[in-house]
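Retro notes
What went well: the complex prediction finally ran end to end.
Inputs used:
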Amino acid sequence: MQKQFDDLLEDKFNIKFNDESLLDEAMTQASYVNEHPGQGLKFYERLEFLGDAVYQLVVSDYIFRRFPELPQGRLTRLRAAMVNEHSFSRFARECHFDKYIRLGKGEEKANARQRDSLLCDIFESFIGAVYLDQGMATVKHFCEIVIFPKLDEGWFDEFFDHKTELQEVVQEDGPVDLDYELVSEDGPDNDRKFKVAVKINGKEMGVGLGHSKKDAEQKAAKKALNELGVSTSIK
Amino acid sequence: MQKQFDDLLEDKFNIKFNDESLLDEAMTQASYVNEHPGQGLKFYERLEFLGDAVYQLVVSDYIFRRFPELPQGRLTRLRAAMVNEHSFSRFARECHFDKYIRLGKGEEKANARQRDSLLCDIFESFIGAVYLDQGMATVKHFCEIVIFPKLDEGWFDEFFDHKTELQEVVQEDGPVDLDYELVSEDGPDNDRKFKVAVKINGKEMGVGLGHSKKDAEQKAAKKALNELGVSTSIK
């Protein structure tokens, strides 16, 4: 099992731990330690604390340099979209971390292995372990493979608040009328579709389709941002 | 003015910027840029965004390594005490940053130079500028001079939640009775003094004196932690 994980990390991310016990710590839940007393095992929580700060900086540094014209408010919103429990759990699954978590029997039975909150913690503790064992450059390299390409693939779109973004952009030079109008709503109850138009000072700037009004509004706002030539970081 | 600031940074912190324009950016408020159009000036907000993440990591890394036995919850509370608007503004004043901020005339009149929230922003933007210009090692060195010694001097005590700390510590092995009792309250209205005792399962473990009940409770909790031999990170 351990050997498989080592191979995966080396093949996929070119990461080879010097201190394997750090990797073990990152992948071990307290429930497992409690069931194996006297072995000096450690669980992931301290590494999660550290990894959280490491990841925040790697993401901040990346978007700061990649989008040199993006003002603070928009950088902050973009970071919030990328530093997100749901994103983390998806990354953890994509990297197959779920297979290698060490859990106590009760937690295993309760299917904790597939719990988003646990996968999120493990993703951060893994980052913390890589940072301690290999340094910042390796964390950056890992993020360049796993995280940053997702920005261009639209992964973070659903966490990105295009409406707030649009409001900030259009009001830069003073107040404007920004309205969202429901154009149509149809389809059966279990597959309802909403069409929303966004208007700036009465002029339609984008139309969005979605399974909820909120979703359609976000998509309309995104279209308007594109229309306005605003280089959103999210495609 | 600029020269004075350069000398101060070099003398006190051994920091000499390669790119002076980054330091200018860190110390410049938007109001100043607005009053000097066409000069290509930048204001501090993007650097503040970056500096915030840099500082979080430097502090996290430091306390993670310094307190190898501290569990995640207590690390998180200690970090929260150290990453705090009020602390930041005190650091900024101690480093004399207030003298070197570039403000617009209106903001100068409104005495923004002494506003805690601005000093807090400037402290973070300065950290961001040092990180970009000099790298992480110089930020760490700066924190070793300015921030970390404060931990032992008790600077962060007032932001530290000893009551939560005590509750967590005493309940590690199961539920206990933890009570705070007001022992006395005296003195004139403008200089009222409160004395509070904390009892664990009925046994007095610490007494605290303060100008408010809350303050006295915090101090009692801190005494109890010492009494229990808990190595609080704050002296």
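What we learned: The CA atoms of residues 9 and 15 of chain A lie 5 Å apart.
What to try next: split runs per interface for comparison.
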